[in-house]
Amino acid sequence: MRIIKTKDYDDMSRKAAAIIAAQVVFKPDCVLGLATGSTPIGTYENLVKAYQNGDLDFSRVKSVNLDEYRGLPKENDQSYYYFMQDHLFRHVNIDPGNTYLPDGTDADSDKACREYEAIISGLGGQDLQLLGLGHNGHIGFNEPNDVFDKVTHCVDLTERTIEANKRFFASAEEVPRQAYTMGIGTIMQAKKILVVVSGKDKAQIVKDAFFGPVTPRVPASILQMHPDVTVVADADALSLV
Ligand code: GLP
After folding, report:
1. Distance of CA 187 to the CA centre of its chain
2. Nearest CA to ligand 1 atom 10
């Protein structure tokens, strides 16, 4: 595991974008695993800038997102589909037919998850998977558990995650209670993994996840076992290590 310490959020965002840009330059038809949440927003902004400067071409890139809320239609501005359009897809020349997220509108969760897992394997897996880090160590929506869930599945969100995500909704009641997420196995099959983390409020979980024991109670701790993980974290997030 490689840890890159950055001055602040902006520095983290520029460095993370540079790593993703390098992946696209090296392999123009790569499969990017993408993430939502507030942390990667600056990374996407920098990728859009690089595209606008003529330095990046997404025309052959394929993307698979980590997760999607169950039950939110695509046009809901809190769906992860909407987030991706808003922060990246509509600003670059990626082919919309090459961008994939779990289908949150499919009420048949087994079918939706099975189909999504098949899409990812059909693409040959992620060349680079971007990840944020939840305060309880969740990655995608893999919440603390007794076991590491392997494949794409439906999860009940924890109270802590609902609480953390309610800032984006009118009230906590409106936060969906379930989501479809890549499993830990789906994430771990990526050839490279890039984690972005920022802020003092993430310092304790950075310490637990990357310097503590590997346990499904802290899902991100499994990343210690992956052969090619880069964590780009700002000084605040690394303040306890
Ligand atoms: C959500 C997402 C995760 C994300 C996490 C942290 O729950 N499903 O993929 O990493 O939030 O979000 P933030 O970056 O806003 O702290």
Report:
1. 9
2. 132
